[in-house]
Amino acid sequence: MKRDLFFLCFVVFALVIVISGVVIKVRYFQNTKAPHLSLTEKNAQVLPDRNSFSASFLFKKVKNLFVHQKEQNPDEEKFLSFFNDSVTKEFLLGKIRPAKDSMFIKVTTLHTERNIYLLRPVYASFIKMFEAAQEDGIQLLITSGHRSFVDQVCEWELKFNNQENIEKFSDDLERAKHVLKYRSMPGTSRHHWGTDIDLNSIKTEYFETEKGQMVYNWLKENAHLYGFYQPYTIQDENRPVGYCEEKWHWSYIPIAGTLLDKYLEMISKDDIKGFRGDKTVGSLDLITNWVCGIDKKLLEKKEDQQNPYQNWQLKLYGHWDDRLQQGNWYYMDTYGNINKIAYESGVVVEEAKNIGLSSGLESLFYEVFQSRFTDRLLSLK
């Protein structure tokens, strides 16, 4: 009898523990979910009391707002190694199979109706942008992502060999220039890198509709918060050459910026071949006028940076003297790691990777976190 009573008490006690755990988890989730700022709320957010912030809690909040969660990048070491040291010509020219490469991930049916792959960090950032847009009543759909060299050959030749274009432009060079208004020659497309996406529609008419205008206005206002920029803006003095304006094309600059540098370093016009019309490459300044024919701000901003660690990163400032170019920089990379660089007279004297969030930095991060609701420090604004 006593044994049965003891067993019953044990079962009741275990149930109480389990139920309490569930309640605590639910309350914790409700209290720590990173807030999304709608267009009308960005300048009217009130943070919880400063004393309620623990170091770990604050770090999660900052990561959720600005960077990719580490668990979304399981191949981080491989990706970083490739990103820094091992970019190949084949990759830059689109001559790879993303389905066989662990640095790429397939886009789910929630975000596309097609068979599309993107680099993992690019897709992780898009998911955050997708969710933010959804909360503002905007639907984003990826219609194109990574495009192989063979895919681009099909896209190019479909237009270049079009009978109407052949009749209109008997000269191959003039026909190539016509097709280059909206089509990239194979080997020159940013889509080869897995960093660029087309959204919703590639028809200019769509973005003239009320729905299309709402989507484009939202992207102009918010996409940069997630690392995405429109490379092919309207053609004017800021972008006098290259493709026509593409309101649907958005590039993940934190990675595409470096890959463009690698492309200019490793690829020449001799590498652009293997398709109908490739004989015109020698008469076209493809790399200067089309590959680099993007919004000037995306080129000039990088050239203006004095600190090499500033390029395309979210920066959290420590103690810094601009005049003497010395002090400590604290910044968060695209994987959410907090890093430190110490400078003296503009020279790096110390680097510390993934330092975490010590109690001494909590005040600094709190102030940055509080102010970034209206001014997020991605390199481009």
Write the layout of secondary structure elements.
Layout: H1 2-32, H2 55-66, H3 76-85, H4 89-92, E1 104-106, E2 117-119, H5 120-135, E3 142-144, H6 149-160, H7 163-168, H8 172-179, E4 196-199, H9 210-222, E5 228-229, E6 249-252, H10 253-266, H11 286-291, H12 296-304, E7 314-321, E8 326-332, E9 338-344, E10 347-352, H13 359-371
Antiparallel strand pairs: 1-2, 3-4, 4-6, 5-6, 7-8, 8-9, 9-10
Give an account of the 3D structure:
- By secondary structure, this protein is of the alpha+beta class.
- Helix content is 40%, strand content 12%.
- It has 13 helices and 10 strands.
- It has helices at residues 2-32, 55-66, 76-85, 89-92, 120-135, 149-160, 163-168, 172-179, 210-222, 253-266, 286-291, 296-304, 359-371; strands at 104-106, 117-119, 142-144, 196-199, 228-229, 249-252, 314-321, 326-332, 338-344, 347-352.
- The strands form 3 sheets. It has a 4-stranded antiparallel sheet. Strands 7-8-9-10 form a 4-stranded antiparallel sheet, with helices on one face. A two-stranded antiparallel ribbon has the order 1-2.
- β7 (314-321) and β8 form a beta hairpin.
- α2 (55-66) packs parallel to α13 (359-371).
- The longest helix has 31 residues, at 2-32.
